[in-house]
Amino acid sequence: MATPQPITNISDPRWVRAISHPLRIRLLAIFDEQAVSPVILASKLQQPLGTIAYHVRILYELGLLDLVSTRQRRGATEHYYRTRAHPRFTDDAWAALDVVAKQRVLTAILNEAHDYASRSAAAGGFDAPDAHFTRTPIKLDPEGWTKLAQASKRWLEEVAEIEQEAAQRIATEPHLVLDAGLVLLLFEAIPFDAGRAHDDQAQETRSSQTKSDHARAASIPE
Predict the structure, then answer these.
(1) Class for domain 1-115, per CATH?
(2) What would the pLDDT profile of 50-70 be if each residue is shown by its tens digit?
(3) CATH 1.10.10.10 domain locations along the chain
């Protein structure tokens, strides 16, 4: 089987397809952490092996996984996969997605973030004195929004540098490894005091836009 071309940008339709199923989102999160086989995943997630193997094959064919090793186990060859580098989440890529695709991506990311934080919290993940969790509503003008967005990007670049430095230390002292989770969100907020009417209006607007997108798609000849 030929190695598929990697997904390098979230505007790639394959990325939207990859995260359109909740089980695939969970699988990608596990493959992020370690190389693992469908057999092990089926046992860990208590899912039929056929179901796990099907979704792993889709992720591989979409270019999101690398086959990193094989192992003989009980007369069969067990395949171990791990995620490739994540697609780039650039401003241009996000702008290129239509409303339906954006909603799929957002739903997938928010569900994964909630599950990630909740499971970690239940296991004492926020017990450290310098653990952090806040919700900070901010009043901005357009210039302030742009500056905050740029600051967020710079901070993520610093996070990547910190992780690279840590990787060098861990290479010589593996016992120092500490799994950490970071979720960063910047968005135009709907105030909590806006009331239910505001939420209903926003939902109606999104629904109308989605119907309009579907109508336009149906009018395009194949």
Answers:
(1) mainly alpha
(2) 999 999 998 888 888 989 999
(3) 1-115
